[in-house]
Each structure stands twice: as C-alpha cells, then as structure tokens.
Amino acid sequence: MSSATSIIPAPPSPRSLGTVVGIVLLIALALVPLLASNNPFVVTLFSRILVFAIAAVSLNLILGYGGLVSFGHALYLGLGVYSASILSFHGIDNGWVQLLVTLVVCCLIGLLTGAIVLRTAGIAFIMITLAFAQMFYFLFVSLSQYGGDDGMRLASGSKFSGIDLAQANTLYWAAFVLLCVSLYGTHRLIHSRFGVVLRASKSNDRRMKALGFPTFRYRLAAYVLSAALCGMAGLLFANLTEFASPSYMSWTTSGELIVMVMLGGLGTLFGPLVGSLAMILTEEGLKMLTQHWMVIFGPLIVLVVTVSRQGIIGVLHLAQDRHTQRSVRPDLPVREQP
User: Fold this and answer.
1) Would you tell me how many other CB atoms lie within 10 Å of the CB of residue 216?
2) Do strands 163-164 and 152-153 pair parallel, antiparallel, or not at all (unpaired)?
3) Please, which residues bridge with residue 243 across strands?
4) What is the pLDDT of residues 260-289, one digit of tens each?
5) What are the beta bridge partners of residue 160?
C-alpha cells in the first residue's frame, strides 16, 4: 500500500477551503425547504440540483478519481428513471421494490458493459461508453408500449413504507440525505485501500499492475458502484419530473454531468455539488435574461476551467494557497497588476 501511495498526490486536507465551502453549502441546502416552504418552484429547482449532484458524484468516482471518461453515464440515470416508471405503469409503486430493481438492473448492466469498456482506454473507452448509452436510448425509443420517443408519465410516486416521494418536500429530503450519504461514502472510499489503488491506477496503471494490484477489478468495482448510485439518482429524478423519457439517457445529458464535475472540481469531494449548483443556478439565471444564454454560459465554463484544472474548488484552493504563502512570508513583495 505504501508503494501505491507514493505515486499519487495526497487528497486535499479536510480543513481546506473547498471542504469548508462544501459543508456550508450542505447547511444552506438543509435550510431551503424551511425558507421556501411556500414557494414550490424553489423547492423543485433545488431538488433538481440535489439529484444531479448525486449523479455527478457517481461520475466523479470514476472520472475524477479513476480517470475514466465515460460519455454514456446518463445511461444509468435513465435506467433508474425507467425502472421506477415501468414498475409504476404496471401498478407496482412500492419504493423498495423499485429501488431493488434499479440497483439490480444498473449493477448488472454496469458489470457487463464495464467488463468490455474497461479493456480499452482513451478515445476507444469514450466512444464505447457512448455507443452503449445510445444503444439503450434507441431501445427505449422503440418501446411504444412505454411511450417510445414521446416518453411516459409516472403513474404514481414511489412509496417507501408510507413515505411518498411524489410529495415535494419528502423528495427533497430523500435527495438531500442520499447526497450526504454518497459524499460521506466517497470520502471514506477514497481514503481506503480501494481508493488509493483506484487513484494510483489513474496516475500509473502499468506500475500498479507491476506491483501486483489487480487494477481491472478495482476499476470494474468502481464502475459498477458508480452505475448503482447514478441509478438511485434516476429513481429520484423520475419522482421529481413525474415523467420518463429516452432523452434522459442521451449523450447530451452525459455531457451535462461531465461539465458539472469539471466545473465544480474534478477529483474533489465537493466538486460535483458545487458544479451542479453553479451550472443549474447560472443556467436558470441566464434564461431569465436572454434566450441566447448558452452564448454567455459557454465562455464562463471555459474561463473557470482555464483558470484552474480543478474548477471552482481549484480556484478556492489556489486562493487559499496564496493566502497561506503571504501569511508565512509577509515580507514578499506584492506584485502590482499592470
């Protein structure tokens, strides 16, 4: 394990500015239902942010820590949506049954597809993950019984022992709890032996294999775990929109998840949360100003990623490092800007 640790950078300190900001955001999100109890739009908007943050956390596990650029990750979001919607269509609104089916389907497909795509790398990996996602996209487009390209409405909300996710506040708290659990689980995972090997294989997979680590198994396990978590986000998303559409698993949705991870901070714990908040809130704000909001939003993403490869969290870390250097060496001259 010491050999693996020696070839990768240590994770950010728990007291880093990015971590503090992430905790503050979680506290603020916990207050949203209390402060906006009479505003259903705000609760729905932040519920969407939480759901996409969970999906982005699942992608960050393989993209940020494993270096696996999946351009078909929205496949599992769509599978979660359709698992809940199809069962509800047939009169099964038991949330525990829907959750079990979601996990089984996502883990099984993640295992089968992962066993194939993880034998490739680079552009081949990206294209094969995209191909699998598009294959299932066209599969659900052809299922006319379940709405086909037009999609289908959710017959009834998922019910967990009397708790109905069709209720806005209930769904919000369910998404908030799942997000907190997924963040804590990611934190524990990346600081475990499993996480060390996963991050080390991203830095130098050949060396890790030479040291005797079965990196393929570690990556496959992370891929399946990521698929399961994204599927649970899909189940929540089905209850949020009360609708299922093949577009949920299209390549554009996968691209949005990648942007969220990159914008917030690739390979950082709270990056997916920060990215989903920044992207969705900025998108909604710009839509109120102009219908050509993407012309403004695109350069903003480029600016953030150009300033720091770790997105917004990276900018915060950079500011913290500069402040620390000034505190340690106050005699350093301050460079005047031209």
Assistant:
1) 15
2) unpaired
3) 153
4) 999 998 889 999 999 999 999 999 888 888
5) 163
